[in-house]
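Our platform keeps sequence and structure together, in a single record for each protein. Because each token names a local backbone shape, the row as a whole describes the fold. One such record is reproduced below, unchanged from the form in which we store it:
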Amino acid sequence: MTADPGPPSGLPEPPTRPALTREYLALAALALIDAHGLRKFSMRKLGTAVGFDPMAVYRHYDDQEALFDGVAEALFDEVDAGSLPWDGPWRELAREYCTRLRDVLLRHPHAVQVFATRPVRSPASIDTGVRMLAKLHADGIPPADALRLARCLREFTVGHALSIAVARLGAERRSRKPEPGSPGYNLLAEAADATALDDHFALGLTALLRGFRATG
């Protein structure tokens, strides 16, 4: 009985890098945007960062705008919509969704603009939208009205996150609010000192949800 032959000469090295996928590239792009900001991002820098020929990115995304669509989808996936309280009242569901979305966006302040400037058309997003409308429809809200409510909530949430992100990324440092005791210190400045930058989200969301009662 002869021993098994050894490996042939010239056998290629086993792969050590992950194969590129759309999902992997979108997450890598999000990580680069988080680290360096949106203005410094480019498709070439992404290809270099993941260790592939920069042109390899274009085999998965036609251009940067298409890639940013993928980044927006990755942000939506982070919300984990499947674990929302779907069995509870629709207002509780809507509140939790908006809160999670706000928290996800503020974890990625450089990427909020990406999410805010494009619709998210992934299967997960569409499925969530359908489930939301079905939930409201089951409570007697017609689908068209349910969509109007959902749009109001999304615009409030994304707009809030965008405003806070811009402030945290530097705009707050340019505030001209007068200091206490100065001649220009007025009621508005006093009220600003008594509040936090983002402590109005829950108040605004509650007001929206209560206002929807007349519709529902």
Q: What stands out?
A: The domain at 22-173+189-211 is CATH 1.10.357.10 (Tetracycline Repressor; domain 2). The chain is about 55% helix and 0% strand. The chain has a mean pLDDT of 89. Residues 9 and 177 are 74 Å apart (CA to CA).
